[in-house]
Specification:
The complex is a heterodimer. Chain A is mainly α. Chain A has one domain (5-308). In chain A, 71% of the residues lie in helices and 0% in strands. Chain A is built from 13 helices and no strands. In chain A, helix 7 runs parallel beside helix 13 and helix 9 (181-197) crosses helix 12. The longest helix of chain A has 32 residues, at 128-159. Chain B is of the alpha/beta class. Chain B has one domain: Rossmann fold. In chain B, 34% of the residues lie in helices and 15% in strands. The N and C termini of chain B lie close together (9 Å). The chains are: A mainly alpha, B alpha/beta.
């Protein structure tokens, strides 16, 4: 029987409200750092919140040829999935007792749902550019999932368990995964996969503002666009937390750890934003070749090193 | 004033339409996004899709070929939307007013909220025009 406290968890603290606010602040960090890299001033801190409130007041247009239900429903499904992934991650970081066997697999699985919801939503929009974006998103999903899962498996092999509780306890006792050679290699692979998962440059092929005019979310407007943007913001928040949990000792809100946790988080976000700002967009075939070639080989090398005990 | 309108003032997303201009106004519009002027300070970003737009920046005298597209773009935009005519051509067809393929300034076909004069207008003028339009909300 589900404890009713989980409704509070899902809607307020580690769930929707907290994740949405933190995710929107993360997108502000993204925009501000990008602006500073380009020698601009950048937007004020409340900018993503103003964007969200403005979008809620705009008209929602459903294109003539679109499937109304699917078009409007899929972003909400993606949002729910992203929130759920965030809730599981934060609960197992803050209260390790809530972790359950196999929750790493559950989180990896749930984190693909926002991408799938974007594919289905764009396919329902009846816009040719949206459908091109959806097909690219699908290819990209196939490309990055394989190295990402193998990179996470190196940690799981070392720990010998599929639960976040064991992963965190192992790192607390024997040092973080980033302290070993295989951990560093797996972390590098995971950073690139995150870049693709968040549709940041050089892997923003499904959105491609300058080429597909927004791609997979081209037809969304008003509140539906707000849900799509929130979805992306929450994923931008969840993925760094996932990387910290798996490779960098997790997040704790006790004493000194508050500062180090926030610093770890901001460091990963800034790495992602710097990669985004210093690379041009690649073609979809180049992206697939990159993930199935060098990244796959690197992740397998990390796995072999982990088996050998490095 | 409602909260959503207040938020709209803080984040006007711009969509840029060229209806047959000589491209000079478009260069000046892009100048607004460069480090010197940086309109993202005020939350304005250039968006790729008309469905995301709050402000339409339209340059150029309207040519025959562009007219149906211009009308359609205006209908596709989610309301509330503000329309700004950029440059001498956008306001009064400029030096192209006697052209055989020109069907007139755009305010004959769609409601225009502001006119920004100049050939081309300076980026400062464009920013001041956007600010004035948003202050009428």
């Amino acid at each position: 029987m589900l404890d009713p406290i989980y409704i509070v968890y899902y809607l307020i603290f580690p769930g929707f409200l907290f994740t949405a606010v933190a995710g929107l602040l993360t997108t502000w960090v993204d925009r501000k750092v990008s602006a500073r890299v380009q020698w601009r001033v950048g937007p004020p801190w409340f900018q993503p919140f103003a964007d969200m409130i403005k979008l809620l007041g705009k008209e929602v247009i459903v294109p003539v040829g679109a499937r109304r239900t699917g078009f409007l429903l899929w972003p909400v499904v993606g949002l729910a999935a992203a929130t759920l992934a965030s809730m599981i991650l934060w609960l197992s970081n803050l209260w390790p007792g809530t972790s359950f066997v196999g929750d790493t697999i559950v989180v990896i699985y749930i984190m693909t749902i926002p991408a799938i919801s974007m594919i289905l939503g764009a396919s329902a929009s009846s816009n040719p550019l949206g459908i091109v974006g959806a097909s690219r998103e699908m290819k990209l999903l196939f490309a990055y999932e394989l190295p990402l899962v193998i990179a996470v498996l190196t940690t799981i092999y070392k720990v010998g368990s599929f639960s976040f509780q064991a992963v965190l306890a192992h790192q607390a006792q024997e040092g973080v995964m980033l302290g070993s050679v295989s951990g560093v290699i797996a972390f590098i692979v995971a950073i690139f996969c995150t870049q693709a998962k968040l549709n940041l440059l050089p892997f923003d092929i499904p959105e491609a503002e300058t080429e597909l005019a927004g791609g997979s979310h081209i037809e969304y407007s008003g509140a539906a666009l707000a849900v799509v943007k929130l979805n992306m913001a929450i994923m931008f928040f969840v993925m760094p937390v996932f990387l910290i949990t798996v490779f960098w000792g997790g997040i704790a809100f006790t004493g000194w750890h508050i500062l180090t946790s926030i610093l770890k988080y901001v460091a990963i976000v800034v790495i992602l934003v710097l990669i985004k700002n210093t690379n041009p967009r690649v073609r979809i075939d180049q992206a697939v070749r990159f993930f199935w070639g060098p990244m796959f080989i690197l992740s397998v090398a990390a796995m072999v090193l982990a088996v050998l005990g490095y | 004033m409602s909260l959503t309108l207040k938020a709209l003032k803080k984040s006007p997303w711009i969509f840029h339409v060229n209806t047959g201009a000589c491209n000079n106004c478009d260069i000046e519009i892009l100048d607004c996004l460069t480090p010197r002027f940086d309109v993202e300070r005020f939350g304005a970003v250039l968006v790729g899709s008309i469905r995301h737009a709050d402000v339409l920046l339209i340059s150029g005298p309207v040519t025959k070929i562009c007219l149906p597209r211009l009308k359609r773009l205006y209908e596709q935009a989610p309301k509330p939307i503000k329309v700004i005519a950029i440059g001498a051509c956008g306001c009064k067809c400029g030096i192209f007013r006697d052209g055989y393929n020109i069907v007139g300034p755009m305010d004959k076909y769609i409601p225009v909220d502001a006119y920004i004069l100049g050939c081309p207008p300076k980026p400062e003028t464009i920013i001041s025009g956007i600010v004035k339009v948003l202050s009428t909300l």
